[in-house]
Design a protein that fits this description.
Blueprint (H helix, E strand, L loop, with lengths): L1 E3 L7 H8 L17 E6 L14 H10 L4 E3 L6 E3 L2 E6 L4 E6 L13 H12 L17 H4 L14 E5 L2 E5 L21 H5 L1 H6 L7 E7 L3 E6 L13 E6 L3 H9 L5 E2 L10 H4 L4 E13 L12 H10 L3 H7 L5 E3 L9 H4 L14 H10 L8 E6 L5 H16 L5 E6 L2 H9 L7 E6 L5 H9 L13 H12 L3 H18 L2 E13 L3 E2 L15 E2 L1
Parallel strand pairs: 2-11, 15-16
Antiparallel strand pairs: 1-17, 3-4, 5-6, 6-8, 7-8, 9-10, 10-11, 12-18, 13-17, 13-18, 14-18, 19-20
Helix pairs in contact: 9-12, 12-13, 15-16, 15-17, 16-17
Length: 542
């Protein structure tokens, strides 16, 4: 999504204030059965909850609860299945005709039409709206006029979008993109009601969508309360009365609240608790593969980190990291050393290659020290790895990575951690290109395609390319893969692009991450989808 892989964070005041409500259950009418309220750990989103401007997990969780799009990714398999799309037709993988199902409305009663999608996509693409997900519309004809790389826009709408009638619209792409329909479950492509445009500030304070839940209230730094929408027409109706998302600034505090019976669900188990979680929760613990990868990104926008030959430095640093030891001792088998830049959940047919990185991702202190020296050493003499300090979970592994690098290079000052306030603070420094050294990064897939692990983060000027990595050969191969109508050939071409990224060591892959969660005995039917996000609408309160 998510954009960048983001993590879960709750203000202690909120915890104290809510503890007396028996896990946020409220009065006697809503503490049991289908009307019961689920309380879950959460973190404040980086930005207001505009679908086109949300590319991180915390905001994505909410948007996934209050919106439904043309497609929805199956919570078990990740397969893109029709939701509001009655059909998506094409004869050439470049021109698509989309028919919207009848009978869907927003929670305010407004009918959802083809125009609801077209207007939303035009808004998301328009440069003046400054939406982080704008590049997801980059293959639609006219994007270069609406969102030029330089200068002012010469159009306000995408020429490739046309409303045919209330239920039909057409999409013309600038090139063939055979898997385009599979991307349409991503949050950037959801429809928007007229209130979004007519009363934008009011909508941002209390978003109106078309999903199983509605936003009841939100206090930044405290909590968001979502209620089940009784009029939701979809097949995945909420099985509970609502979800209260509580903001935690430390996932250890959230875990303590869970074990004390003051919280129902934590979907980011602290590393320090992994060895105890099964016994602490009497088996109410989920540890399952997910479309997540943790990486170490570099600020290519900083001249000190963008010099010829520095691929040797980055490769040397990669080889200086003992991934096996870190994943075993710190993460207790909830992480697996990475050997490519995707995720095992894709499988071989989907583009996963467990041996692609090879020696460059294999611990080799001798070769690491040699390569770093040949590259002229670390800029400034010390590698400062930035990370958000609010969860408490990143410091442990960042310190471990630095200890490994220091041992490999024979220099106790070669690497140190650089904690940065809250997640929002950290993300703002990342997206505003204010970091002068490497920073924790990663990816939670938006949709289960190898393209989604490569293009949004490493294509030139892509939406989540926070380090500004750029290689024309990589871009060319991605374009070719997107244009390939044979899926197997497209995957092979994406892998060729991934090899370019490997040879540049444009970002260091660290480990694949499982989704983990713990829950109270008050709730049941708790699962994580392939994106590691709880399937909130299916949770039942006992």
């Amino acid at each position: 999504m998510r954009g960048t892989m983001h993590v879960r964070w709750v203000a202690l005041a909120a915890v104290v204030a809510l503890a007396a409500t028996a896990c946020g259950g409220g009065g006697s009418d809503d503490v049991n059965g289908a009307n019961g309220i689920v309380s879950s750990s959460w973190g404040d989103p980086q930005n207001p909850l505009e679908p086109g401007n949300t590319n991180e997990v915390q905001g994505g969780k909410v948007l996934d609860m209050i919106f439904r799009g043309l497609k929805r990714y199956d919570p078990k398999t990740g397969e893109a299945k029709n939701m509001l799309a009655e059909k998506i037709e094409t004869t050439d993988s470049q021109n698509f005709t989309i028919t919207v199902k009848d009978g869907w409305t927003f929670s305010n009663g407004e009918k959802i039409t083809a125009k609801s999608f077209v207007d939303a996509w035009n808004y998301g693409a328009d440069l003046k709206n400054n939406q982080k997900n704008a590049t997801f519309f980059g293959y639609i004809d006219g994007y270069d006029k609406v969102h030029p790389d330089t200068g002012r826009p010469t159009a306000t709408t995408l020429s490739g979008l046309k409303v045919v009638n209330d239920r039909t619209f057409t999409v013309k792409l600038s090139q063939k993109f055979s898997t385009f329909p599979d991307t349409l479950g991503y949050v950037a492509f959801v429809p928007l009601p007229r209130a979004f445009y007519d009363s934008h500030a009011a909508w941002l304070s209390k978003p109106v969508g078309n999903g199983p839940y509605t936003v009841d209230s939100y206090t930044k730094g405290s909590q968001m309360a979502l209620k089940r929408w009784a009029g939701y027409p979809g097949p995945d109706k909420a099985q509970n009365g609502g979800v209260t998302l509580r903001v935690y600034t430390d996932n250890n505090t959230a875990y303590t609240d869970l074990t004390a019976g003051n919280l129902d669900l934590v979907d980011d188990i602290p590393a320090a608790q992994l060895k105890n979680v099964s016994s602490d929760l009497s088996g109410r613990y989920i540890n399952t593969p997910a479309g997540l990868i943790q990486t170490l990104s570099f600020p290519f926008y900083d001249p000190a980190w963008h010099k010829p030959g520095q691929e040797k430095l980055r490769t040397g640093l990669s080889m200086a990291i003992d991934r096996k030891q870190i994943t075993e001792t710190i993460f207790h088998n909830t992480r697996t050393p990475a050997q490519d830049w995707t995720s095992p959940v894709l499988g071989a047919q989907g583009g996963f290659r467990g041996d692609l990185c090879g020696a460059a991702c294999t611990y080799n202190p001798t070769e690491a020290k040699k390569l770093v020296a040949e590259a002229g050493g670390i800029p400034g003499g010390t590698l400062k790895i930035s990370y958000n300090a609010d969860t408490g979970s990143h410091k442990v592994w960042v310190d471990a990575v630095c200890n490994s690098i220091n041992r490999s290079l024979g220099n106790n000052r070669a690497c140190v951690g650089n904690p940065v306030g809250t997640f929002a603070d950290f993300r703002n420094q990342v997206t505003q290109h204010k970091l002068s050294g490497p920073f924790r990064a990663g990816w939670q897939m938006d949709y289960p395609l190898i393209q989604n692990f490569l293009q949004p983060m490493y294509y030139t000027n892509a939406s989540s390319n926070d380090g500004t990595y750029s290689n024309p050969k990589f871009d060319k191969l991605v374009d070719e893969a997107n244009a390939e109508t044979d899926r197997a050939k497209a995957v092979d071409t994406f892998i060729e692009a991934e090899k370019v990224l490997r040879d540049d060591m444009g970002v260091i892959p660290l480990w694949y991450q499982n989704g983990s969660a713990g829950y109270s005995d008050r709730i049941g039917n708790v699962t994580l989808n392939p994106f590691s996000v709880p399937v909130y609408d299916q949770i039942k309160v006992k």
